[in-house]
Design goal:
The chain has 987 residues and is of the alpha/beta class.
């Protein structure tokens, strides 16, 4: 040490990749490289060595020095050149470079340290005619220049500004002219240009001899980078927009939920009142019955006994007796049921208006109201019955029903007119048109409402209609190119998997549909040219889609429809004859749209026509097959495939999913179907689909080797035109080889031999698939590099994790403990959990007693459960990890073998919780040690890294911010979407 002063540490303050600081930093090294040709160079605060490597391309020799040993180790690993060395230590240690002699050039860029003390130390390392290049930070330019002039004969000051924008230069290199710098200034939509640059950095050059001639302007242009500041601004603007949209959505949701809570309270109170009334009536009747029962029963018994003895039923004497009493002879018919009024609990401030057009047939209307009252919907609604000048007393019967609003048409308007009239009287923003010959099932309205409010682009939602006998009437309608209609699934099983998918459709039957009121009014309501009925619902669906909105069927909303009650079934007479007449009208109105419709109901056309592209661009049909239904709350592999499916849906693809285990795991299967994915779990249905629809497939994604072989041969036969992508998930043979190496290291030779043989078999299987498929997907650059050597003829590309980043600021305050997350049916996770609990954490607790380890993950084995102790909590499966991540100080991923990339690390980084991992754990993640993650490979190194994060808030914050940025760059949804767009486009 010098002067007895504290240790002088010169270390790199990292500049996040893709920021202005990183470009400015690179430019300083580019300037120095031009002055270092053939010279010996010392780079102080070398960090990970990228700048030193640039200098070494021109210099005779370069020595990089940094106080952070881990960064120096990373530099040595990344940059191997004969003229490049790296040393770790304090600059104040006079023995550090004792055997290196003096240097022609010394650089010190972007490093943290005391510049005045630095100058005294490095002066002895600089050759007599040497050059010092250092940037100014922590001192004013004048003060720093004064320090230099005290020690050097010649000093030059350069200024550096971020000038990513535009460059204009002469194509003639011999052109001589002065340099011009300009700054763009904005004021709203107005802008001006100032004749100067916004200088941000000062670089000082010093020497005891004449300084080199510096260029009047030195430009660094990155042709692959849009303006970094603008990109960051755009990212922040996009994030603000996203947050504002989210807040607006949450506000609407909160308002709706408040209305629903008030409605439920009101409904509960009404049910309690009904229960009290019913209980009182039962009590009164019971008392009356008890008083009279015995007497009546004795009298009736004697009377009936006498009648039956004197005149048995069926005899002539009995018939005469019945006629004498004014009754019909023979066996009496049951008395008609009394069609009493129906009370429906409704709301004065509804979220939904249910409009029921009627024309007579009070018995059907009454049954419809009864089912409405019994459905116990959680959405506040009103009921509007529009009586279309009924020829009987149906309107008077409706008027007696409490809670039901009656609207009387002054004349018969027909179905279309009655519906439009009802809409005029509605008090809510959502309209439901419901035929009076329907019976709703519990949950029907909630399902329509939840679907409609899930996406502002949805303009119409229809229910699944079933016949009274239980067979399917319709689940979304199809219109062919000649304007004829097709009720999808008609006469089939209402539980058919292909039907029970929330999907975009051509139209939904007007017997039970929900429409946005503003949109209904915008398109003019039901078009009266289709009066009195037929094709008005189809026309409305086409008009809503033409306005840029979606038309969706929700199969979880079930309504029984007594089809034909209103208009009969004979298309040659009555109102029913308008079905064919209006088809012609519809065909003329929508001729351009019909030209895009499918021509005929072939099996393949039925599949495509029954599920439209939500973006209305005729998106491709995509088949995805994995070993099981994704369970995204349980394992990283499921999260990845689930999010890839979401991205395919967002691109407008019609996605069909095959689980290779043929199981419909719930609630995950239902969730996929709600999103619009057709799940076919039955092997027979899977084979039929490939055979009938294979020629229409655009892309097939087969995940894992065991799954891919199941379907590859059939696809090559029935879908020769489609792109078959084999998704490795990770390289199984590589994971097995690493597991075998660990077993050998630990002396388990027999186990290692078995693992190597298994790895060899898996290797042949996986490489064979890569040769047989059109495209193979890996998740990391390490695997890509390996396969480039093993199967150079295969098209192998990276499609890694798909991770959402939480951009809210993260803080170490209030956090404690270490968190490990992983599914324990995966052997690498079991091994890592045991190593962490039994060897690493005891070392941590020596320094930080009381530190608790939390082991979280699905299907914990007995060996994992046995790790529980005073300092180890085994949580098992946790559905929502948010609270655990929010409390954890450190996430540990000490994986000793495995392959691919680790979802647990991406997830923790995306949430802003720093991770300590092994080299294998961090492999392929593109996370930089000390900037985005801490890395160690033995128990001591990992424990030390954990302790650093437990203690050092600045380190914690640096890794938290760096991890979020890197995860978004490498694993963000935009990355996956661009990749899938390219594959679907044939690139």
């Amino acid at each position: 040490m010098t002067d007895g002063a504290p240790e002088l540490r010169i270390e790199r303050a990292p500049a996040p990749e893709g920021t202005l600081a990183s470009h400015l930093h690179r430019h300083r090294y580019a300037l120095a490289a031009g002055l270092s040709a053939g010279k010996r160079v010392l780079d102080l605060g070398c960090g990970r060595g990228a700048g030193a490597a640039v200098l070494a391309e021109h210099a005779a020799e370069v020595v990089g020095v940094d106080a952070d040993r881990s960064l120096v180790d990373a530099a040595r690993s990344a940059h191997r050149r004969s003229n490049l060395r790296f040393e770790s230590g304090s600059v104040g240690d006079t023995g550090l470079l004792a055997d290196h002699g003096t240097f022609d050039v010394i650089t010190c860029f972007g490093a943290a340290g005391e510049r005045d003390r630095l100058l005294r130390v490095v002066r002895g390392w600089l050759a007599e005619d040497g050059l010092l290049l250092v940037d100014v930070e922590g001192l004013s330019k004048a003060a720093f220049t004064e320090l230099l002039t005290d020690r050097f004969a010649a000093v030059a000051v350069l200024r550096q500004a971020a000038a990513v924008g535009s460059v204009i230069a002469s194509a003639d290199r011999d052109t001589v002219g002065g340099a011009v710098g300009r700054t763009l200034r904005r004021d709203g939509q107005e802008w001006t240009v100032e004749a100067d640059l916004p200088w941000e950095y000062t670089i000082v050059a010093a020497s005891n001899v004449d300084l080199p001639v510096f260029p009047s302007v030195d430009l660094l242009v990155d042709p692959e980078c849009s303006p970094v500041a603008g990109a960051e601004t755009d990212r922040l603007r996009d994030e603000l927009t996203r947050v504002a949209t989210t807040l607006a959505h949450e506000a609407r949701t909160a308002s709706r939920q408040a209305a629903r809570i008030e409605w439920l309270s009101s409904s509960l109170a009404e049910m309690e009142r009904r229960a009290v009334r019913a209980e009182r009536q039962v009590s009164q009747l019971s008392e009356e019955v008890q008083k009279q029962s015995a007497l009546i029963q004795r009298a009736l018994g004697r009377y009936r006994h006498t009648v039956e003895r004197v005149a048995p039923r069926g005899t002539l004497r009995r018939d005469v007796y019945e006629r004498a009493l004014g009754r019909t002879a023979g066996v009496p018919a049951p008395a008609p049921a009394e069609l009493s009024p129906v009370a429906v609990h409704t709301d004065e401030s509804p979220l939904v208006s249910v409009i029921i057009p009627t024309y007579g047939k009070w018995s059907y209307t009454r049954q419809c109201l009864l089912t409405l009252a019994a459905a116990n919907s959680t959405v506040p609604f009103e009921v509007i019955v529009v009586d279309d000048a009924s020829p009987d007393d149906a309107a008077d019967q409706v008027a007696r029903c409490p809670g039901v609003r009656l609207v009387r048409a002054e004349r018969n308007r027909g179905f279309i007119g009655a519906c439009n009239l009802g809409a005029e009287h509605a008090r809510s923003d959502l309209l439901v048109f419901l035929n009076n010959d329907t019976e709703v099932r519990p949950g029907w309205l909630d399902e329509l409402y939840e679907t409609m409010t899930s996406d502002d682009r949805i303009g119409l939602v229809g229910a699944k209609l079933v016949y009274p006998d239980g067979s399917l009437q319709e689940c979304g309608g199809i219109i062919w190119s000649d304007a004829t209609g097709w009720n999808y699934g008609r006469g089939g099983d209402p539980g058919e998997p292909a039907v029970n998918v929330t999907r975009d459709v051509d139209y939904c039957s007007g017997a039970a549909i929900m429409v946005r009121r503003d949109l209904f009014e915008q398109v003019g309501g039901f078009d009266t040219r289709y009066a009195p009925a037929y094709y008005e619902d189809t026309d409305l669906a086409f008009a809503i889609r033409a306005s840029g909105h979606r038309v969706v069927v929700q199969p979880n909303s079930v309504v029984v429809h007594h089809e034909g009650v209103s208009h009969g079934t004979d298309i040659a007479q009555g109102v029913k004859r308008h079905q064919e007449l209006n088809r012609v009208v519809f065909a003329q109105k929508w001729a351009d749209e019909l030209a895009r419709q499918r021509p005929e109901p072939t099996p393949a056309n039925l599949w495509l026509a029954s599920r439209r592209d939500p973006l209305d661009r005729d998106g491709g049909l995509v088949l995805v097959m994995d070993h099981k239904i994704p369970t995204p709350d349980q394992d990283a592999g499921s999260i990845r495939i689930y999010r890839l499916i979401e991205e395919l849906l967002a691109l407008g693809c019609r996605v069909v999913y095959f689980p290779a285990d043929y199981a419909e795991t719930q609630p995950y299967t239902a969730d996929l179907r709600r999103k619009g994915v057709t799940v076919l779990s039955d092997p027979g249905r899977q084979q039929t689909f490939v055979r009938e629809v294979g020629p229409e497939l655009a892309l097939v994604l087969l995940a894992r080797p065991s799954v891919a072989w199941l379907l590859l041969e059939q696809l090559r036969e029935h879908a020769p035109q489609c792109t078959i992508a084999y998704d490795t998930v990770d390289l199984h043979f590589l994971r097995l080889e690493r597991q075998a190496a660990l077993a050998e290291q630990e002396g388990e030779l027999a186990e290692a031999l078995g693992l190597r043989r298994k790895a060899d078999a898996s290797r042949e299987l996986e490489l064979g698939l890569m040769r047989a498929c059109d495209l193979s997907l890996v998740v990391s650059p390490v695997e890509l590099e390996l396969l480039a050597k093993l199967v150079p003829e295969a098209d192998v590309r990276i499609l890694s994790l798909v991770q959402d980043v939480d951009w809210a600021p993260s803080s170490p305050d209030g956090r404690a403990g270490v968190l490990f997350v992983g599914g324990y049916d995966h052997l690498p996770n079991r091994d890592a959990a045991a190593w962490l609990a039994e060897e690493i954490m005891p070392l941590v607790r020596r320094e930080r007693p009381g530190t608790v380890l939390h082991l979280v993950g699905s299907r914990p084995t007995r060996e994992v459960l046995d790790l529980a102790s005073e300092h180890v909590e085994v949580h098992g499966f946790v559905h929502d990890l948010t609270s655990l991540y929010a409390r954890a100080r450190v996430v540990a991923a000490p994986l000793r073998f495995g392959a691919g990339v680790k979802g647990k690390i991406a997830e923790s980084a995306a949430l802003g919780v720093p991770t300590v991992a092994t080299t294998i754990g961090a492999e392929g993640m593109n996370l930089t040690p000390e900037q985005d993650i801490l890395v160690g490979d033995d128990a001591e190194e990992l424990a030390a890294a954990i302790i650093r994060l437990l203690d050092d808030d600045r380190l914690w914050l640096r890794l938290s911010a760096g991890g979020k940025i890197k995860v978004d760059e490498v694993f963000g949804r935009a990355v996956a979407r661009r990749f899938l767009e390219g594959v679907l486009a044939g690139h």
